[in-house]
TrEMBL record, chain A:
PANTHER family: SULFUR CARRIER PROTEIN THIS. It comes from Saltatorellus ferox. This is Sulfur carrier protein ThiS. NCBIfam families: thiS. CDD domains: Ubl_ThiS. Signal peptide: none annotated. InterPro entries: Beta-grasp_dom_sf, Mopterin_synth/thiamin_S_b, Thi_S, ThiS/MoaD-like.
Automatic annotation (TrEMBL), chain B:
Residues 15-259 form the Thiazole synthase ThiG domain. Keywords: Cytoplasm, Schiff base, Thiamine biosynthesis, Transferase. HAMAP family: ThiG. Pathway: Cofactor biosynthesis; thiamine diphosphate biosynthesis. It comes from Saltatorellus ferox. GO terms for biological process: thiamine diphosphate biosynthetic process. Its main location: cytoplasm. It is found in: Cytoplasm. The active site is at 107 (schiff-base intermediate with dxp). This is Thiazole synthase. GO terms for molecular function: thiazole synthase activity. Catalyzes the rearrangement of 1-deoxy-D-xylulose 5-phosphate (DXP) to produce the thiazole phosphate moiety of thiamine. Sulfur is provided by the thiocarboxylate moiety of the carrier protein ThiS. In vitro, sulfur can be provided by H(2)S. One of its GO terms (cellular component) is cytoplasm.
Amino acid sequence: MNETAHIQVHVNGEVTEVPAGSTVADLVASRDLKPQQVAVELNRSIVPRAKHSDTTLGAGDRVEIVTMVGGG
Amino acid sequence: MTNEDQYTHDEVLKIGEFELRSRLLVGTGKYASFEETRTALEITGTDMVTVAIRRVNMDPSKGESLLDYIDRDRYHILPNTAGCFDVESAVRTARLARELLDTPLVKLEVLGDPKTLLPDPIGTLEATKTLVDEGFTVMVYCSDDPRMGVRLAELGAAAVMPAGSPIGSGQGVLNPNAIRIMMELVDVPVLVDAGVGTASDVALCMELGAEGVLLNTAIAGAREPLRMAAAMRDACRAGRNAYLAGRIPKKLYANASSPEEGLIEEAGPAPK
């Protein structure tokens, strides 16, 4: 087997490398985030939590991962 | 013993499907700690708290989440779109909030510029329409222009929330008459959002007949936030009761509250 290929994606505005074939669930887990405490947008569309595991990231994808903070 | 409750009964405030007993809506920003946030919310007696939606901190060193400090069985969470200066960002933020919190509620803010944080009227109308069409319960931050309130209600806003004065300014309600007129013209709840500086501002809003008041900085920024939380709770109740009780009209001249008959002999020449 070759070394795992990586692709570049934008996560919260920062260029990040992830293994090719990574899913949204993999990305969330790799950041030690609890899925219930985040919401994810992929290329400006919501990825519902139930679909994190079967949504695969592609090169150049733009991902936003948000949570709730204090605010008025 | 007198049961005061029978004289101070109030209807619940209905916003879309949601029912609130407390008419004070409280933000969660700018507190010194999550612990202080939680205590302040408890003291205010609020039923609905606002939060913001932001990118997660990518540092793996991240600590606790505000989510751990807000009891969702106790409070309705009202996510805002604060910081959004265009329709698309506001709509996307609302969708993210719904995904995150599983709530149709959103406090819509489409702002004009970062210095004044005044609401952009055209963007606010556009985003309201989109979010209402998508099934959100939209509570809209807007200017105190009465006609703006009418247009938002026509589009299906669940509540309109005119600013008393600019966000975080503490200037209170600059144009009470505009807010009174808006309440007359609009058939959804009108809540004053933004500008509250101190307890009397809240009382004034409620005396005008506002269905509620939303505030944040006035508590979080006070020297003693937890004492101010109590002051705001009391002011909201006081103003609401005064509104329901019906104030006396203002008159130019005095009107004695003691009987004018039965007075003892007036002073005159001393009896011999």
